[in-house]
Automatic annotation (TrEMBL):
<dbReference type="Pfam" id="PF09713">
    <property type="entry name" value="A_thal_3526"/>
</dbReference>
<protein>
    <recommendedName>
        <fullName>Angiotensin-converting enzyme 2</fullName>
    </recommendedName>
</protein>
<dbReference type="InterPro" id="IPR006476">
    <property type="entry name" value="CHP01589_pln"/>
</dbReference>
């Protein structure tokens, strides 16, 4: 389901909210999976974040972005 969020160029926070609302998935689950994917696919996410938002790239790639959920 995270892959679908990526196709729609959603941020981590947008993905967390969408999956909680539409798939009834706890935010902590989505955040944990997202962060593991980030660790395992650094090059992909580096390009993904740069393409979607240069500001978002700098915070999420460095692990400084936090969800309010």
């Amino acid at each position: 389901m995270i892959e679908s969020c990526l196709v729609f160029q959603m941020s981590k926070d947008e993905c967390v909210k969408a999956l909680a609302k539409h798939a009834n998935i706890e935010p902590t689950i989505t955040i944990t999976v997202w962060e593991e994917l980030l660790k395992e696919n650094k090059a992909f996410f580096r390009e993904y974040f740069q393409a979607s938002s240069p500001t978002q790239f700098s915070s999420e790639a460095n692990g400084t972005s936090h969800s309010d959920d």
